[in-house]
Inverse folding.
């Protein structure tokens, strides 16, 4: 079983990207389990002064969740041309201690949807960049950017969209394959 931890870059309860993460969990191929970690909202802004012997409980829970996962799936919209602050903050927490963090070497893919015509590609590119610098094994070839989210999903959940299902399953299979390769190395 490959355990994929999904981190959603939008905090809205009715977020299309949250629904996209739900679609990933719902349509996960056999042998893959997707769990969404909602605790990134509880992480304080990263500050090295509080990243010491007595970590905030939210940071401990977050790092433990990443350590327990075989791979990470970032599901994010685009805010002002880049990733939402809550996701950047989570990646900052996940990157420490640098070189020995739970994210270090972990397969990671960034996908998502946005209202614009490009589906959030700038945010996904930035998420891959940040995650790579943080030490993750970023799957650069996994690109799922679904445009016109508000219109496309106005009357349907992403899990009911055959194209979305196929794209998300492809991303999850790529993460599972990378996780298997990582374990064999």
């Amino acid at each position: 079983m490959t355990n994929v931890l999904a981190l959603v870059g939008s905090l809205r309860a009715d977020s299309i990207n949250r629904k996209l993460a739900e679609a990933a969990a719902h349509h996960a191929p056999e042998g893959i389990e997707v769990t969404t970690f909602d605790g990134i909202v509880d992480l304080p802004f990263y500050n090295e002064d509080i990243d010491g012997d007595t970590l905030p409980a939210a940071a401990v829970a977050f790092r433990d969740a990443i350590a327990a996962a075989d791979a990470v799936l970032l599901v994010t919209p685009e805010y002002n041309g880049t990733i939402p602050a809550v996701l950047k903050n989570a990646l900052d927490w996940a990157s420490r201690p640098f070189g020995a963090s739970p994210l270090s070497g972990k397969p990671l893919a960034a996908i998502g949807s946005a209202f614009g015509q490009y589906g959030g590609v700038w945010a996904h590119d930035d998420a891959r960049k940040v995650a790579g610098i943080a030490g993750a094994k970023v799957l650069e070839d996994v690109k799922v950017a679904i445009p016109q989210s508000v219109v496309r999903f106005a009357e349907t959940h992403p899990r009911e969209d055959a194209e979305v299902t196929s794209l998300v399953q492809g991303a999850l299979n790529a993460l599972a394959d990378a996780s298997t390769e990582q374990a064999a190395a």
About this structure: The first helix runs from residue 16 to 26. The chain has a mean pLDDT of 96. The first strand starts at residue 2 and ends at 8.
